[in-house]
Amino acid sequence: MCGIVGYIGPRNAAEVVIKGLKKLEYRGYDSFGIAVSSDQISILKKGGRIQESFFNLNELNSGLVIGHTRWATHGIPNDTNAHPHSDCSNNIALVHNGIIENFLSLREDLLIRGHIFKSDTDTEVIVHLIEEFYNGDLLYAVRDVIPLLQGSFAILVIAKGEKRIIAARYKSPLVLGIGDGEVIAGSDVTPILDYTPDVIFLEDGDLVSIRAEGVVIENSHVIIERLVTCVDWSREDARKGGFDHFMQKEIFEQASVFSQAIRSVDYEALKTILSGVKEITVVGCGTSYHAGMIFRYLTEEFARIPVRVEFASEFKYSPPPLHGLLIALTQSGETADTLAAVEIAKNYECTTLAITNVLGSSITRVAKNTLFMRAGPEVSVAATKSFIAELAVLFCITDCLSEGELRTQSLDSAHKAIEDALLIDIDPAVDLLKNAGTVFFVGRGWYYPVSLEGALKLKEISYIHAESYAAGEMKHGPFALLSEETPVVAICVEGPTYSVMISNIKEVKARRAPVIAIGNKGDTDLCAVADVVVTIPDTPRVIQILTITVILQLLAYRTAVALGRDIDRPRNLAKSVTVE
Ligand code: F6R
Predict the structure, then answer these.
(1) Mean pLDDT over residues 133-141, rounded?
(2) Which residues have a catalytic role annotated?
(3) Which end of the chain is less crowded, N or C, counting CB atoms within 10 A of the terminal residue's CB?
(4) In angstroms, what is the span from residue 287 Cα to ligand 1's centroid?
(5) Is residue 441 part of a domain?
(6) Single pTM value for the model
(7) What are phi and psi of 120, to 5 degrees?
(8) Same domain? 388 vs 375
């Protein structure tokens, strides 16, 4: 995790870098810092979230700065473990995203050779190694150090007296924005788009000398040209646009996000990828894993094709026998476990298909095929619109496999249905949830993974303990926890599981737990058993997956707002989980 930014050019580089780091805070936000190159290298860094007031920009007048926002892996979050790190003489400074797995042995050797360490991080070994090789040319020194490192890294390095940044990438993302007489490097495109849409996505093994006039890229000691891509994400996409939080904005974008994702799927290309597929394995983490679970229910029902869904983190250590198609779901395209699962799948006779939101992300390099969900940048740590966009692409896959079954369920009605769901009154439900210590979410069939996602959203942004169960499982243990103080959110809509859900709700009520039910309009039976009923718009059954998801997202959001939580940056989390 962690985010890095570097700038070289005519602007106030510190201002560009700090602004860029704010955009990358989703990658980690427990400490921050910058290294400014002028007559000497000055490092300013601190524990905690980025505070712009910590920097006096008028005094930091330099055209060459690198910076970092951290999610701690080695060493607690504090001022000294914050990046940038410097060598013994403070002439070289470095920021790093990734993990150096062999740092312990490197550190021991460096200590024996007399280096003084200032932090507990794995990163600091890199800058001391560069110091050993440095002989007036930073590029040569970094080139010599890279073969000594094991693990993953995107690094930016500067040295006193050199008007350039040296960058290197291996298994951690790094993008270069190529402007007119200026270059900005970042962990993703968001710090870059304010200055230029033209970017280069670096590849593993790339080593770059960055000067304001342009970049020279080498890989395996050979100078190479990399394609310049024009990114079509608008700058507005990465701004709050009048909403109080990015999460709120991203929830409210979902009607168009769904339609856009559906439109962007190339059915002809998809048919080729899916041709002859008899079984499917899906891997993902967190919210993406939940999208995979919904896909399983839909594909098994409509296309009668068996689908297995695995946590990417588990799959890695016990990969099942694999045939057919492996689908990797990942908004960021950088989740370490999901990347590893795809690498493993390549050893089997199966095709790999990544579904991701981020152009040029690592997953696009490891999977044979990629579909982009085109949700636009998702800034809030909690995934919302990317879940809806993942579902849109997965619906298209199910539709293709079932020869149009799902399309006849009117995917086209989704846009209006999502818009209607955004307007539903959920105040009474929020009032009930905001005082709870524990909340249960229950559903059956494909509403079970929808309820899992509802519980995940509530716990991650409100910090209320939330659990989800397939409704039939509650009586096999969790009932012991029910009381008047444990609200249960029950998804109880028309369809094959309706009557049994009504019975399950009655069982819950008999244990005195308050029930917030999500159901259909005019359902008097449901109103008779539940304490609060939130009714969803009338739509085909499959579309209810989307409308209920929206309601659960809003429940989590509104509850967290009522509790005064830090909505877009919940504690202890980071959006892009690039470590195992
Ligand atoms: C939850 C959330 C996480 C991510 C998970 C996978 O709101 O954001 O659970 O879904 O870390 O991330 P991606 O999809 O980027 O692989």
Answers:
(1) 97
(2) 2, 575
(3) C
(4) 5
(5) yes
(6) 0.82
(7) -100, 15
(8) yes
